[in-house]
Amino acid sequence: KDANAPVLTVEGLTVEFGALKALDDVSFAVPAGTVMGLIGPNGAGKSTFVDAISGFLPRHGGRVVLDGVDLAGKTPTARARLGLRRTYQQDRVPPSLTVGAYVTFVARRRIDATELAETLEFFGCPPASARLSAIDVGTRRLIEVAANVMARPKLLILDEPAAGLSHEEHLALAARLRELPDRFGMSLVIIEHDLDLVRSVCPRLTVLNFGRVLASGPQVEVLENPDVIKAYMGE
Ligand code: ADP
Ligand code: MG
Fold first, then answer.
1. Do 177 and 35 form a contact (C-beta atoms < 8 A)?
2. Backbone φ and ψ of 167, nearest 5°
3. What is the β-pairing status of strands 204-209 and 35-39?
4. Which of ligand 1's atoms lies nearest the C-alpha of 51?
């Protein structure tokens, strides 16, 4: 297989909520083994994008292809099985479970105790026996990322992973995210409203604004694009 083949290709994706086009003809590609940033002001369509890609929302046009497989008509579960995983902007970690039980539930596979302990440690998470109810929201977000990494996806999409994190947690998360492609053989899309995390993690960025792609390319080029600066100032 071509090493630079995209793990995800999105062509002309359109999602409508009644009269509102939340996504309008969006095209986007993620080369295998890379970390892509998807940014844009509040309401730009970022969460709608991840919902549509992962199969939680019907799309009204366009094509989504994961590692050569067209995802049309596939359920979120089928997409997860094919190697597409996502996290949520809101905290959805159930407090009644232990860390280990939650990870096993999310990863949908038996995870060797050593692998579980090592991966939790890599992410700076509490041990498998800890109860989620005793863990703060910032750390629960890290556990959600760790659990999805242990699902061994081809592509993991993180929806605002830094939301609710302290400055220290934010820096620690950034350092780990940079390592994920090499360490776990996966690709990442990081969706962020806040630019600090993407600045330190994503070499390439795509900007959404009013449901359309405003700019796409190397990070510095995109962040210096006058249209992008204007879109962020206009918030
Ligand atoms: P972002 O994640 O970039 O902040 P969203 O994808 O959440 O933006 O929202 C994009 C647009 O679609 C916004 O105008 C929002 O109000 C609208 N929207 C999102 N979800 C729904 C929904 N379920 N029904 C109607 N409108 C929605
Ligand atoms: Mg959002």
1. yes
2. -60, -45
3. parallel
4. 6
Expressed in angstroms and rounded, the spacing between residue 90 Cα and the centre of ligand 1 is 14
Q: Which two tokens stand for residue 177?
A: 């995210």
* Phi and psi torsions of 126, nearest 5°: -65, 165
Residues 211/25, Cβ–Cβ less than 8 Å: no
CA distance 57 to 27: 17
**Residue 88 contacts residue 81 (beta carbons within 8 Å):** no
- C-alpha closest to that of 189 among 146, 218, 152, 158: 158
CA separation for the pair 63, 9 (Å, rounded): 8
- Per-residue pLDDT reduced to its tens digit, 175-225: 999 999 999 999 999 999 878 899 999 999 999 999 999 999 999 999 999
Ligand 1 test: best mutation among 48, 88, 209, 214, most atoms within 8 Å of CB? 48
* Run of H or E including 52: helix 46-53
pLDDT band at 2 (very low <50, low <70, confident <90, very high): low
Q: What is the ipTM of this complex?
A: 0.98
pTM of the model: 0.94
Q: Hey, is 23 helix, strand or coil?
A: strand
